Amino acid sequence: MAIDITVARKEREGMKTQCMNPYLPLSEHIPDGEPHVFGDRVYVFGSHDLENGNEFCELDYVTWSAPVSDLSDWRFEGVIYRKDQDPYNTEKLPLYAPDVVKGPDGRYYLYYCIKFQDSINVAVCNEPAGKYEFYGRVHYKDGSVMADGQPYDPSLLCDDTGNYLYFGFAPCMINIPRYKGQDLKGGSVLSLEDDMLTVKEGPKVVIPSLNYGRGTSFEGNEYFEGPSIRRIKDKYYLIYSSVNTHQLCYATSDKPMEGFEYQGVIISNGDVGYNGRKEEDKLMSVGNDHGGLVQIEGEWYIFYHRHTYLNQYNRQACAERVEIDENGFIKQVTITTSGMNEGLLSGNASYPAVYCCNLTNGHMGALSSLGRTNMEVDFPYITSEDGERFIANMKEGSLAGYKYISLKDTKKVELVYKGNGDGRFEIATSLWGEAIASIDINNISYWKCSSSEVVFGNEDKELYLIYRGTGSVSLLTVNLIG
Fold it and tell me: Helix, strand, or coil here: 321?
């Protein structure tokens, strides 16, 4: 039977469409997202993974943007910088996590690094999403290239006190042959002259690595990679990926180049730590994480990425609302399907199954990457084949979760699936909760639609599908029918 898998993005007052995680088209993989508001649009600058790829950041830099008034309306701005534009990248190696800042001269500066090259390189453009041109490499006053402190993952801030560049890579907890024996001290900062290339002061380590964290406020949450700097009122907020890799933590200081103290976790792409969740109970397979904060129309958001497929090289851009309280504290938020949407998602719409915010068999392993192996591979995962994106390998006890949705409007749940499974999908409204309905599943080699009538409560807003049965099931679409 033919199945229409188009997402029904419902018209709503004040918004053209719904906004979900991931917020970009499902074919697009933009990890390490740095969000910035320039004018009346928010731009996301990040790395660029190849869907079903086998290495980090295989593609050229592209940019997406949306009007600040409608975060569902993302526009592809095209390629802003190619690997072959850098004169030092003769082998066209991957371009890693970038950032863009508006400099003192009003131009836009793209800072980036190249795989296994110990430098931070810069391109420049007259507009945020235009065609950037190579500008130079960050260097000391004598002209020598700044190659200290493992110069990866640049993040920039230009304010009334100066121009600041944060960077660093410290994989002390991972056996990467290239960095074996190196003194990996942590995340660093330096200040730049107004030419945006010449080091004025520094670098200085501001967040310690695992090797140097004992006895500091960072112990247990030391620096790994991915710094992202913001100034909020009179404080500097430095977001970073900790040694736990899947979580974004933050530290604050009254000064840009010293005095940072650990404050807490903002988000984990396995929901570890949220409401006390333990590492072994993570709700997704996890890998690295990297993102940043942005304020849009008075609301704060944390941008991050999630993982698909069975390795760390297929990452998609996500975002959640956060609150900064009167004391400047940010409480950890949960990962959701609704993301930046204004309110709950519609309970009368069709959703690709891969919009799940939780996907677990109860004991998810970490994803593999170069030089490391994954001993636990038999878990459910998101993948794509022939242009179709779906959840694969759901076995007994596998759970897919969706939140937050206005389920009081839903009268029937319809699933599009295939596989050699024989059993049922239980429908619950709380994590691992009691089933309120179920949908029978049969062994079938093509996409099939099955459904069940469901009575939800007025306050229900979380939907969980738990497979009970034999074999393995792939899940394509979740239709909610009012």
Answer: strand
Of 32, 51, 86, 289, catalytic: 32
Domains of the chain: 34-322 (2.115.10.20), 349-481 (2.60.120.260)
Q: What is the pLDDT of residues 69-116, one digit of tens each?
A: 999 999 999 999 999 999 999 999 999 999 999 999 999 999 999 999
Instruction: Give pLDDT, residue 54.
Output: 86
CB atoms within 10 A of CB 135: 17
148 is known as an active-site residue: no
Nearest CA to 306 out of 329, 283, 273 is that of: 283
Q: Which residue in 130, 111, 118 sits closest to 62, CA to CA?
A: 130
What distance in Å separates the CA atoms of residue 157 and residue 195, rounded to the nearest whole number?
A: 14
Q: Which residues contact 107 (CB under 8 A, 6 or more apart)?
A: 124, 125, 126
The SS3 of residue 68 is coil
* Residues 84, 249: Cα–Cα separation, whole Å: 34
> Which regions of the chain are under pLDDT 50?
1-15
In single-letter form, the type of residue at position 299 comes to E
pLDDT of residue 1: 33
pLDDT digits (tens, 9 = 90+) for 325-340: 999 999 999 999 999 9
Query: Is the alpha carbon torsion for 326, 330, 332, 335 positive or negative?
Result: positive
pLDDT of residue 117: 94
Active site residue 225: yes
Rounded to two decimals, what is the model's pTM? Answer: 0.94
Q: What pLDDT, on the 0 to 100 scale, is given for residue 3?
A: 36
Q: Residue 199 has which token pair?
A: 């080091």
99, 153, 225, 271: which is the annotated catalytic residue? 225
Which of 80, 111, 76 is CA-nearest to residue 96?
A: 111
Q: CA geometry: angle at 464 spanning 460 and 465, to 5°?
A: 140
